[in-house]
Amino acid sequence: MILAAPRLFRDGRFEAEGALVIEAGRIVAVLGHIPADADLILPHGILAPGLIDLHNNGAFGIDCATADTDGFEHLCRSLAQSGVTSFLPTIITAPIPDLHDAAARIRTAIGALTAAPLAQMPGLHLEGPFLARARRGAHRADWLLTPDAPTLETLLAPDALRATLRLITLAPELPHAIAAIERLTRSAIAIALGHTDADAATATRAIEAGARLATHVFTAMRPFHHRDPGMIGVALTDPRLAACFIADGVHSDPIALRLGFAATGMRAVAVTDSISLAGLPRGSTTAFGGAGAIAEGGAARRPDGTLTGATITLDEGIRRLIAAGIPPEAALHAATQAPAHAIGLTDRGRLAAGCRADLIWLDDDFNVQNTWIAGVPIRPVASAPPRKPRLPATETLNPSATDLDEQPSEAIIALLFAQEAHAQHALRRIAPALATLADAVALKLREGGRLFYAGAGTSGRLAVLDAVECGPTFSLPPGIIIPLIAGGDAAIAGAVEGAEDDTEAASRLLAHHGIGPGDALIGIAASGSTPFTRAALSHAKAAGALTGCIVNSAGIMTDEVDHSIVIASGAEVLAGSTRLSAGTTQKIALNALSTTIMIRLGKSFGPYMVDLRATNLKLRDRATRIVAAIAGCDAATARALLERCDFEVKTALVMHRHDLDPTAARAHLAGHRSHLRHALSSRPTA
C-alpha cells in the first residue's frame, strides 16, 4: 500500500508532500513526492507517527491497576481513536501482591489483544512503590517501600511482572536505590527518577548507575533553587536524561512547560499521567490508588485538593502544549520519537523504513482524523480525488505575475525581490539536511575521495562555478571537486540543444573518471527529474558512491539518493525560468555546502581563509593581514614569514608559533592533516 499526504512529520520537522510505502504492517520506503499510483491520498493535514504515552494509569473509565482483558480492549480501542498507538499501562504504589495481580492481568491482555487495530502495550510502567515520602503526592504513605535487595527480589519474583515490566519510577535518594537501579538496568528495565527529594549530586549518581528518564519534571520534586538545583536542575541539563512533562497545563504552568522544553530540546517527552477519568465529563469521580478522585479541567484531584493524575488524552496534550507556546514540531516530537527513543522502542515513533506503520492523520489544528496500527486504519477514510499530472513547482504560475508585462519597471523589480525573499525562507528550512550532507561528503574527502557535481543548464553552470571557485579560495588541487555539465564545456557559455536528455553522456563521463565507493556525487536540478542528472546519480549509486541531490521540486530524484535537499523556492516570476529563484537558492546552497565541507577539512581558522592561494597582489596583501591577525604580529613580520614559505598562510603561522623552518612547519602540519588549529596547539616532536 502507498499512503500519501500533503505534509509529513519526520524526525522533528514538518516536510512537504510525501508518501509511505507500507508492506506487512511496516514502512518499507518514504517518498518525497506523491506518486501517481498512490493507493490513498489524504486530502489535507499531516501524516505523522502514532503517539506514544509512557505514563498512562487509565482512561475512558478503565483503571490499568484493576482492568481485565475486556477492559484493556476498550482502553486500547479508545486510545487508538485519540491517536495513541503505543502506551505503557501504569500502576501506582500499591501492596506488592496487588502489583503482582495487576501485572498478570496486563500480561494476559497483551497476549490476547493482537488481532484488531488497537493501541499496543509494549510493557508495564510501575510508578512506585519506591518513592520519597516527602514527595509522594497522591501515593499512599503506608504502601511505600525501600528498594533493598530482598524487597526488590520479592517484587520481581513473578514471571508475569518480570516479563512485562518496561519502566519503573523510583526516588534515587532512598537507601539501596543506587544498587537497585544498577540491578534493574542489568535486567533491561528502564529507570525513571521521580517523586523524589534528591539533590543534584544524588540524581547524577543515579544517572551514572543507569537511570535514563525523569518522571513528570517539576511535579513531586524538590523545588529548584539556584544553589540547590536538585532533580529539576539535573533533568533540565543532563543530556543523558529524557525529561517527561505532564502535558495538561495544570500540573505545570505554561511558563514552566516553555522553560522545560527550551532547556531539554529533543529530550522532552510529553506524557498524560492520565487516570480512568480521562475522556469522561468534568465532575466524574472514581477511586484511584486507594482514595477518591474527581475530574476538573484536565486534571484530577483528591477530595483534599491534591493533584492525582490528569484527565486528558495525549492528542489533547499536544494541543495544550502548543497553546502554551511550545512549537508544534517540538510538541509532536515529544509525543512520538522522543518517548520511543527514551525506552528503546526502535521500531516506532518515526516515519522511516523498517518502522511499524503506526500512524496518525492530523488536521491543521492537530485534531486526530484517523489512526493506523501496523498499517490497518481504525476507521475507513476516503482518498482525495485523483490528481492531474503535477508540474514541477518551478513550472507553475506565480499568481502575482498575471499582468507582469503591464507593470512599471519598479513594480516588476519589487515582485522579483519579493519572490527572492520567499526563496530565502525556503533555504533556512533545509539547513539541517544540508549540514548532514556536508558532513557525509567531508568524511569522503578526508579519506582521499572526490566530490562530483552533475547538472544541466543553469544548474550545471552553477556547479561549475562552485567547483572552480573552491580552487583559489581553499588551495584545492584540481580533481577534488569535479563538475559534470550536460553538453560539456560548450554548455558553460551557451545552450547545447538536447544535452540534458543525454543519459549515456553522464555514464561515460563518470566511467572515465572511475567514480567509486570512496567518492560522492551531488545532482543539481530545479525540476528534480533532469535525465542527465538522474543518470549520473544512478551510475554513481551503482558504483557505490555516496549520492545526494539539491533540487527545487520534490520528484523521482529525491527518492533515488542517500541525501535529498529540496529547496521549496516556489513558482518563478517567469514560469520555468529557473535562473531566477531556483538558481539563486542553488548557488547559495552550493556556497554553503562547499564552504562547510572545506571548514570541516580544516581549511579555515575562524573567519580566515588560511588555505587561500595568494596568486596576485590583492591576495598577498590579504594573506599578510591574516597572518598578522592570527599570529598577533606586525605586517612586516607577517610578510617576511610568508615570503620564506611561498605565501602559504598555514605554514607561516606554524613557523611563527613553533619557531620552525618552512620544511619542518609543513611536516608538522601534515602530521595534523593540515588542520591549523590542531597544529598550533600541539608542540612539534623532536
Automatic annotation (TrEMBL):
**InterPro entries this protein is in?**
Amidohydro-rel, Etherase_MurQ, GlcNAc_6-P_deAcase, Metal-dep_hydrolase_composite, Metal_Hydrolase, SIS_dom, SIS_dom_sf
Do the record's keywords include Metal-binding? Answer: yes
Kindly report, in one word, the top-level EC class recorded for this enzyme: hydrolase
Q: Where is the SIS domain?
A: 441-603
Q: Is the keyword Signal in the record? A: no
Q: Where is region (Disordered) located?
A: 384-403
Among the GO molecular function terms of this UniProt record, one is: N-acetylglucosamine-6-phosphate deacetylase activity
Q: EC number(s)?
A: 3.5.1.25
- Into which family does the record put it? Belongs to the metallo-dependent hydrolases superfamily. NagA family.
Protein name (Swiss-Prot/TrEMBL): N-acetylglucosamine-6-phosphate deacetylase
* Annotated source species: Acidiphilium acidophilum (Thiobacillus acidophilus)
**What does the organism's lineage look like at the top?**
Bacteria, Pseudomonadati, Pseudomonadota, Alphaproteobacteria, Acetobacterales
